[in-house]
Amino acid sequence: MKEADILVEVQKHLATPGVLATARGLSHFGEHALGWMGMGALGALIDAPRRAQWVRLVAAAFVSHAISVVVKRIVRRKRPHDPRIKIGVGTPSKLSFPSSHATSTSAALVSLARITRNPLPLLGIPVMMVSRMVLGVHYPTDVATGALVGAVTAEAIARTGKVK
């Protein structure tokens, strides 16, 4: 099964009006990692005891997004263009690998799980991954790679703040 076939199946089973509206909302929130960086900035502002951790969340979202943009320009994989796939949102680039939304979301939510000492934020990672496929703007390998890059970036940045 080709990745385009997977997208067709994802859209066939999940692209209801409510899911599409939610996916578009997530798309706007995650654009250029701005929603995640804003959330981190707000956390740093109101949670003084954990300010450094919130700043690392912002750094993880920013750095992971930057990494994904650089990789996109090197790999230059085009976004899905199969006529069976419906595109549900505009994108700032025609390049798809890796998904910057999956990258920054993974970085932010891995960081948030660390800050809160609660694994529940991690559930948002597959939600963003699936939303990008429902919208027809990323292949499965785009979102999987993006999530991995984001998680690794968050872990690396978290380790920079550890006291020995």
TrEMBL record:
* Phosphatidic acid phosphatase type 2/haloperoxidase domain sequence ranges: 55-158
Task: Report the Gene3D superfamilies cross-referenced here.
Answer: Phosphatidic acid phosphatase type 2/haloperoxidase (1.20.144.10)
Which domain of life does the UniProt lineage start with? Bacteria
How would you describe this protein's topology in the membrane?
A: Multi-pass membrane protein
Q: Name one Pfam family in it.
A: PAP2
Does Hydrolase show up as a keyword for this record?
yes
Question: Which keywords does this chain's UniProt record carry?
Answer: Cell membrane, Hydrolase, Membrane, Transmembrane, Transmembrane helix
Compartments it resides in: Cell membrane
GO cellular component term, pick one: plasma membrane
Q: Is Transmembrane included in the keywords of this UniProt record?
A: yes
One example GO MF annotation: hydrolase activity
Q: What is this protein called?
A: Phosphatidic acid phosphatase type 2/haloperoxidase domain-containing protein
